[in-house]
């Protein structure tokens, strides 16, 4: 059964023309259509010319958003010895060793990001079924398996995000808040585009970028002119 579209969204959809928008114009429209009763996020939905069922066409990496995410993220760290104190001093919200692994196994999920040191990964591996579906499993590619615990905590709290392409080759990323200035959103979106280009999978053939849409959490989708975004110089801020 088709999902009923609310009157609010129907009205907002009328503001969006059936065309590709220049990046800044798209982000100004995103702000204009963010009318929900809560602070909405700014989201990008990017279809790439990849088939992630092949290992050489998978995309999983991190982006450091220059203007931050606008979110406060809760970071958990699983480590041993002096790394436990390092994590605590660096501002981790939850820190522990084997006892934290046990708590997570029992259902404790009071965090948005999990960092682990390489020496505890054999034990963390048993949390795969719990953490994997939630996108919380630490990985070296995602920058969440590291010996530089303090550095990783600082980066993620400052606006570093991990993202991946889903099974259909689409990347869904929150790149700020709808309350950000359009120019700040553009700075973050440009950083995201450059990261995706820089991490193009080796097996990606043909046209890599297919479509890019942006929207607020509860707003309509707005198509962005990818070529305009890619041609932009990095000093957009």
UniProtKB/TrEMBL annotation:
It comes from the Bacteria. CDD domains: Ribosomal_L1 (cd00403). This is Large ribosomal subunit protein uL1. Belongs to the universal ribosomal protein uL1 family. HAMAP family: Ribosomal_uL1_B. GO terms for biological process: regulation of translation; translation. Protein L1 is also a translational repressor protein, it controls the translation of the L11 operon by binding to its mRNA. Binds directly to 23S rRNA. The L1 stalk is quite mobile in the ribosome, and is involved in E site tRNA release. One of its GO terms (molecular function) is tRNA binding. Pfam families: Ribosomal_L1. Part of the 50S ribosomal subunit. It comes from Aliterella atlantica CENA595. InterPro entries: Ribosom_uL1_bac-type (IPR005878), Ribosomal_uL1 (IPR002143), Ribosomal_uL1-like (IPR023674), Ribosomal_uL1/biogenesis (IPR028364), Ribosomal_uL1_3-a/b-sand (IPR016095), Ribosomal_uL1_CS (IPR023673). Keywords: Repressor, Ribonucleoprotein, Ribosomal protein, RNA-binding, rRNA-binding, Translation regulation, tRNA-binding. PROSITE patterns: RIBOSOMAL_L1. Gene3D superfamilies: 3.30.190.20, 3.40.50.790. One of its GO terms (cellular component) is large ribosomal subunit.
